């Protein structure tokens, strides 16, 4: 279907790897944040809310610059990671995953939070009266009932990660084979003369990936919307 | 059938309640600018909690079940202290061993009827046998593989009763179990409550706004009214 020369496939593979790691690593954090925002009442909740959604509205290049400050060689978190775990994110594909994950976080939190808020809390009460403690209620009632939102969040986050450009190129630059993901490869190709064919192929590949993700999330949203609570009278 | 004195008060009982009663309850809670209070000293058998809509009957049941914390008072069921404001006792709902039948059945939508029935007894070795026996008793054996969304309200209410009974509760809390059921099916559920009372012998705290329903079922009626 998509006639790509062999040297394009590693770019797509890298994009998929970066996005999968970004979403996988961010998912527990996104769920925890969604749960806190949906269920807890505490001073500073609005501030946390705003912070979570910040990457959605701030120019990506600013997010990338903040990551550079925090996770760079001389950044507080970057130095700590290097000293204690020997991990460097700067100019590495793992750094690209971090940038993609941060940019995907607001979308993931939003989808998961809506789903948690739609869980009928009276069902949790019913489960308690049947002898289930809070942890079992969470695992057997709250979590399965919010699963459609979790899946939608994963897909949206994945799609966002595939398309991530600004924060990534600012934080980890454009290193072929290491941080040159699909959008960065397209940008790099655009800089070279006579690369229209390359750009077209890469663009089609990225459109197909995003479209698939969006369709999947739409299907899941429909299934979630199909009410499961009404009885036939 | 004896009608107990209408009791709606927050004051502690001057005479010590008899310890033979299944339900010894004296609780209150403010809800906005309203105050909901109830005193019950009755049971075994069916004890009806009657009164107009909005008087706080469901709130009382939620407090007995442990889903809502009273501002003060005490709740004893079968001589077990579930709540005592003065002593700081507040047993978690999962440790109260009460069966709560909600007005809307409240079945778990992501579990089939079988999964709903087994929810409280999964850890028991004889769960499968108990389930079978209960399904036969309630006449829901043919529904076991259905999803809750495909059940009629009457069927859902039977499943809810089975789900609660299977946990072998020390008593049942029933919140207007007939209210959302169409008229034709009400007699069935009413008969079922009578069988629970007479054959199973489980004490029931039964909330209803319908006095004739209360009089038909209950040995004691506690009338709640606006303060």
TrEMBL record, chain A:
Main localization of the protein described in the UniProt heading: membrane
Keyword Lipid biosynthesis set for record: no
Pfam families registered for this protein in UniProt: BPD_transp_1 (PF00528)
PROSITE patterns xref list: ABC_TM1
InterPro entries named among the record's database cross-references: MetI-like, MetI-like_sf, ModB_ABC
Subcellular location: Cell inner membrane; Cell membrane
Keywords from the UniProt entry: Cell inner membrane, Cell membrane, Membrane, Molybdenum, Transmembrane, Transmembrane helix, Transport
Location of the ABC transmembrane type-1 domain: 12-220
GO molecular function: molybdate ion transmembrane transporter activity
Annotated membrane topology: Multi-pass membrane protein
Membrane-spanning segments: 12-38, 50-73, 93-116, 137-159, 202-221
GO cellular component, one term: plasma membrane
SUPFAM superfamilies assigned: MetI-like
Function in brief: Part of the binding-protein-dependent transport system for molybdenum; probably responsible for the translocation of the substrate across the membrane.
Family: Belongs to the binding-protein-dependent transport system permease family. CysTW subfamily.
Stated name of the protein: Molybdenum transport system permease
Species of the source: Sphingobium terrigena
Automatic annotation (TrEMBL), chain B:
Region (Disordered): 1-20
Domain ABC transporter: 17-227
Superkingdom, natural source: Bacteria
Entry-linked PROSITE patterns: ABC_TRANSPORTER_2
Protein name, as recorded: ATP-binding cassette domain-containing protein
Record-linked PANTHER family: ABC TRANSPORTER I FAMILY MEMBER 10 (PTHR43514)
InterPro entries reported in the protein's UniProt record: AAA+_ATPase (IPR003593), ABC_transporter-like_ATP-bd (IPR003439), Molybdenum_import_ModC (IPR050334), P-loop_NTPase (IPR027417)
Keyword annotations of the record: ATP-binding, Nucleotide-binding
One example GO MF annotation: ATP hydrolysis activity
SUPFAM superfamilies, per database record: P-loop containing nucleoside triphosphate hydrolases
